[in-house]
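Usage example:
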Amino acid sequence: MELSLATRTVADHAVLEVGGEVDVYTAPKLRERLTELIDGGARNVVVDLDRVDFLDSTGLGVLVGAHKRLRPMGGTFSLVCAKESLLKVFRITALDQIIPLHPSVEIATGTRTDGIGAQPGQARTGPADSAGPAQ
Amino acid sequence: MAMSRVRLAFTPAPVHVRTARLVGVAVARRVGVAEELLDEVRLAIGEACSRAVALHRQYGLADLVQVEMVDGDTYTVRVTDRAPVEAGLGLTALPPDELTNESLTDEALTVGVGFALLAGLVDDLQVRPAEEGLGTEVWMNWPLRAVPGGARRWVGE
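Running the assembly step on the lines above writes:
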């Protein structure tokens, strides 16, 4: 399956929805899009991996690269991932200790209205299409 | 059950790694690797092939990357590159605290993460000089489903 990339804004976060397979062939497209986002001024970036079927070391390298670029800028970088097969990849490589992983976009962006996962005073109502599966 | 073998060779280009993954998993499924291991098989074959492609590109080698899948009592996949042995054997997994090291290049990071994945996914893994000619091979082995009576369980049975 080809890589699909779609960007939207949730609160003050740029949310990049990724779908398909992220591997040695498609990862450069992901790197390019993340670079565009950061060069375009995005400082709080969330990559939603919910529709990703496959993620290899090249894709992981791109994600770590974006994390490393944003850090000295005072930005934030986090991932949305609830699939066990992908979570295992983060655990094996210990990247789960470096990049914050969240089960939903709402929690990653602090827009979940029931307060769970949101920082005090940061709970906001997100757009209707950002509703994720019940946690 | 007689041993059977599938061989695949591809130009060292990233676009072909997916093909190798698909073939490797198709063979694994056919020969009876447990369903819950197939994600690991797919990822490990992809990592081994990506590693070989990266080495060939690093050394400007046009030689084909070779993948051999053999089933007998177990399922064995061997991915062979033609890069200098010292380069292939010198790759190691990165410890977690090195991953965000600012001086680490993207390539070094990907190689380190890739090796960490291979080592973490495959219990029975060897990286060793190729059996024939120059290069190294990543040798991976997975068990097949055991069924009462010793017969192999085939998908669909």
